[in-house]
Design a protein that fits this description.
Length: 138
């Protein structure tokens, strides 16, 4: 996902040196249905959360397994979840995921992680503001 937004080539059809003559890989793969699949986003979310969670665990053991770390802590910091959710909603907007799907995703992740309803509502308001801002800029 991030790579597709960074990898580019010079546009062979560019007629001016003043034009942005870069074509990004994301332009060619954005239309695939995988980007609209909440299952894809959810699995990606859990993988990234798990990595961040493990990274935040301080342990004196050098070679502790990921599963052992996950068993060691019974909860994940809600700030970490909210931070990652904000990042994901921005990515989902970039990849043209429908707003209703993004809202469902936010609610699903919040409910599964016992994020307070007030905080969930704040996230949904931020999401709506982000969409409004992106629409006004385009």
């Amino acid at each position: 996902m991030n790579v597709a937004s960074k990898l580019h080539r010079e546009n062979p059809n560019s007629t001016s040196k003043d034009d942005k003559n870069e074509e990004y890989l994301s332009k060619y793969i954005k239309g695939y249905s995988i980007w609209k699949s909440l299952g894809f986003w959810e699995q990606n979310f859990w993988e990234r959360l798990s990595k961040k969670h493990r990274k935040s665990v301080k342990t004196s053991e050098d070679k502790i397994s990921a599963a052992a770390i996950d068993r060691k802590l019974s909860y994940v910091n809600s700030e970490l979840i909210v931070e990652l959710l904000l990042s994901f909603t921005a990515d989902m907007l970039t990849w043209d995921v429908p707003m209703e799907s993004i809202k469902k995703f936010v609610v699903l992740i919040c409910v599964r992680n016992s994020i307070a309803e007030a905080q969930r509502n704040d996230l949904l308001v931020l999401l709506s503001l982000s969409l409004s801002l992106s629409l006004s800029l385009s």
